[in-house]
Each structure stands twice: as structure tokens, then as C-alpha cells.
Amino acid sequence: MKRFALTALLLAHLQLFSIVKAEDVPNAKYLTFQAVIAIAKEQSPKYRYASVLFENRQWQYKTFRSNFFPQLNFSGTIPDYNKTIEPRLTDSGSLIFINTHNANSTMQLSLGQEIWPTGGYISVNSQLKRIDDFQASTNKTRYSSVPATITLTQPLFGYNYRAWDRKISPLRYEEAKRDYREEMEVIAQEATNHFFNLLLSQISYQIADKNVTNNDTLYKIALRRFDEGTIPENELLQMELTLLNSRQTLEQSILDVEANTLRLKVFLGITDDYPIQLIPPSEIPVFEVDEKIALEQAHKNRQQVISFKRELLEAEMRMAKAKGETGFTANLFASFGLTQQALEIQESYSNPSEQQRVRLGFNIPVMDWGRTDAVIGTAKANHTLVKANVELQKINFDQEIYLHVKRFKVLRKQMEGAKRADEIADKRYQITKARYLDGKIGILDLNVATEERDKASRSYISSLRSFWQAYYTLRSLTLYDFETGMPLTVDNSAE
Question: Which end of the chain is more exposed for a tag (fewer CB within 10 A), N or C?
Fold first, then answer.
């Protein structure tokens, strides 16, 4: 009676689950592995973050480039109104207070250009000033003009930031482009992990569902045989326990499918409520990977290679900065132009007078208690440290490529072996099941065959996951597509 009640309860659960399954499958989204990778690279939150970050670096590079082009500016003050009491110094040296009431207006047009080889700045300026004195009885308005003036500001023997920026900023931008390409392959790796997590849970659900059906049938057969007296009660109890365990496994697999579906949707940025049904990848890319080609392409394409150059240049820049800002420095300012003042605007531009100005300033450290030596010594030590670190990174860089190529080849062979093992385990299970139904073997042999079949199926999916993760890791480490024999490039829409 207890067995009958347990069987009825089990059938009721299976019937309920079959109703849910029948309702969900027709509305399911069927996604292949490549479709999941494409969605991840086109709409996932991580893709959007990487795209925005790359766009930000593009604007930084455009800002850098704009520094080497002339800048035209128009500025002014209209007006600077002033009505107050101000102190004034008389000829006798005494201080008096007078009322002031005036307005000053200024307009200036300037065209400037940085001189990056020397770190200087040259500009051409034109200026017009107007003064309105509201207290004067006559000639309340006067004009002062500077039709044209050329100004040069030139640091001497100092640190030239712009020259170093011209060397380093293009490397940073090239790093950004390569980093974006690598990030796309990292996204593919994460998508691979989420895809196979869900696929494995769906395969586990299918196995569990099949096991429940099989175990239910076998339990009914065992129950009939027990009633006939052909099997002991121990075997019947074992079959009942197997049925209960398979049902619990089925319930857990349903939960795993729901959880992994949610994780995959969140990663891909899918917001609808439709279930997802994955289609396992049936085609495996066939291509040879040579260690020398992988290393060669990695040295050509990877972001880290550019990073090595940039780190060394930045170390040299910091050393140049330490020397340029602690030793003898000088600054030259020179200006030559024309100027005039008059009561009318037109007259302020007539017969202008020359305007000249030259200033040379310098700084010589006389006694700094070893500060200069300490700053330069620190910069040199950091430069040596960066060189040593870069050399170590280069060694690790080559080792990582070499070892991953070897691992990729091993994983391909393991995947082929796991596929064959899955086929063998399934065939062995079918044979064992038939022999059990014929009464030639016991339940323990059938359980062993079932476990080995389930294990082989999961192992094959896991080996597929490892292969595809290694595949996209290889692409990210080399930025090279070994199938087509072409380097990976940034999508035009991103650039």
C-alpha cells in the first residue's frame, strides 16, 4: 500500500512537471553557441562598458592631437564697470581717497600654437581697449589698440612635457584599441562559461528526467517480479530508493536550469521572460596552432607589447622630468608688436608705435641639501626597476603563450576522447538495461552503467566547455584568428 501511494505521488509530480514543460518549450528561445557569443559581443552590459571606455580613450586621443594645431580664441570684457572710492598716492607721498567712476572694455583675438620640439608657445594677438570716464567733463572716452603683436614664451634647459606626450599618447591609444579587441575575446570566454553552465544543467535535467522515467518503469517491473517471487525484497527496496534519488536529482536540475538561465540572461542583457533552450555546438573548428606563429602574432598584436614600450618611455620621461625640474632652468619671454591710443577708434589704428618686450628669467639651485641628487637618484632607481619588471613580464608573456598553445592541443584531444567515451557509455547502458530486463544481471550492475553513462555525458559537455574557453583564450592572447589566418580587428562602429 505504501509503495502504491509513493508511486501515485511520483506519477503526479511527473505529470505536473510535464505540463510545465509542455507550456514552456513552445515559447522558448533556441540559441546556438555562436549566437550567444554574438549577442555577448553586441549587446551585453560588459560590451557596452568596454565600448564606452574605448570611446572615452578615443576622445582623450583626439584631445591630445588638438594640442598640435593652432588655437584661435576671441575673448573680452564688456564692460568692467567701477564706481567706488579708492586710495591714491600723491606726489608728496601722502595717501588720499578719491571717487572713481569708470568702465573698461576689452576685446582680444589671439591665434596660438605650441612648439612641441622645444616646449615653447608662440601667438599672434590683436587687442582693442576702451575706457569710459564718467567723471571727466570732456574726452570721456578713449581707445587703445594693439593691431598686432607676436609673443614667444620659451622654457630653456627644462622639462619638455609636450615632446614626451607626443611619444607616449599614441602608444596609449594603440593600447586602447588592442585592449578593446582583447576585451571582446574575454567577453566571449565569459559567454562560453555561462553557455556551458546552462547547457550542462539542461543536459543534467534531460538525464534526470530520463532516469526518472526509466526508474519508474523499472520499479514497476521490480514490483511485479517481487509479487511473483522472482526477486528478493532487498532488490525491490534498492529500486525504490533509486527512484526516489532520481526524483530529487530531477528537482535539483530544474532549479539549476532556472538559476543558470537567469545568469545567462543577465550576462547577455536579455530582459524578456521567455525560457532559453540551448543547442550544443556540433561543429568544432579544425586548424593547426604553431607555437612560433602564436608567439609572432602575440608580439605583433597584443596590448601588453605596447604596454612594455609605454612603461619604459614613461620611466625615461620621469627621469627627464627629475633632471629638468631640479637643475638650472630659464624662461624666455619676447613680444613685438604695434600699439596706439586715441579718442576715436579709427585714430587708434593710425600711425601705431612699436611695442617691444623681452624678459629672461632663470633659476640656479645653490644649496638644496642633496634634494636634487635624491630626486634624480629616485628617478634612476625607478627606471632600473621598470626595466627589470618589463624584462620579467616579457619572459612570462612568452611562457604563457607557449603553455596555452600546448594546453589547447591537449584539450582538443581530450574532447575527442570524451565524445567517444560518451558514445561507449550510452551503448553500454542500453546493453546493460536490456540484460537487466531479461533478468540476466542484477540492479547493481544497472546502477553502475547508469552512473557511468550520466558521468560520461556530463564529462563530454565539460570537455566542450574547456575547449571553447581555451579557443577564445588563445584568441585573446594572440589577437589572431587561426581559422582564417588573419589578425583580429576592431569593429568599424567602435572606431
Answer: N
Cβ atoms of 36 and 195 within 8 Å: the answer is yes
How far is the C-alpha of 150 from the C-alpha of 173, rounded, in Å? 35
CATH code of the domain in which 246 resides: 1.20.1600.10
Say if residue 445 is in the same domain as residue 402. yes
pLDDT of residue 94: 85
Q: Which residues of 224-260 are buried (b: 16+ CB within 10 A; e: fewer)?
A: ebbeeeebeeebbebbbebbeebbebbeebbebbeeb
Q: Are residues 276 and 141 in the same domain?
A: no
Residues 47, 183: one domain? yes
Residue 7's pLDDT band (boundaries 50, 70, 90)?
very low
Name the residue range of residue 93's domain. Answer: 71-115+120-159+328-364
The C-alpha atoms of residue 483 and residue 287 are separated, in whole angstroms, by 6
d(CA 415, CA 251) in angstroms, rounded, equals 29
Q: Please state, in angstroms and as integers, the Cα–Cα distance from residue 448 to each residue in 211, 223, 246, 306, following that order.
A: 13, 21, 14, 55
Q: How confident is the prediction for the chain on average, in pLDDT?
A: 84
Is 27 within the bounds of a domain?
Answer: yes
What value does the mean pLDDT take over residues 130-141? 77
One domain for residues 179 and 245: yes
Q: CB of 453 within 8 A of CB of 234? A: no
- Examine residue 323 and state whether it is found in any structural domain, yes or no: no
d(CA 148, CA 339): 8
Q: Are residues 29 and 171 in the same domain?
A: yes
Give the mean pLDDT of 303-325: 91
DSSP string, 391-459: HHHHHHHHHHHHHHHHHHHHHHHHHHHHHHHHHHHHHHHHHHHHHHHTTSS-HHHHHHHHHHHHHHHHH
196 and 337 co-located in one domain? no
Q: How confident is the model at residue 140 (pLDDT cuts 50, 70, 90)?
A: confident
Predicted confidence (pLDDT) per residue in 235-281, tens digit: 888 888 888 988 998 999 999 999 999 999 999 999 888 889 999 88
Predicted confidence band at 285 (pLDDT cuts at 50, 70, 90)?
A: confident
Residue 319 falls inside a structural domain: no
Tell whether 189 and 147 lie within a shared domain: no
Radius of gyration of the chain (CA): 40
The mean per-residue pLDDT over the stretch 190-215 comes to 90
C-alpha 368: how far from chain center: 45
* Same-domain pairing of 51 and 78: no
Domain count, the chain: 2
Alpha carbon distance 4, 210 (integer Å): 21
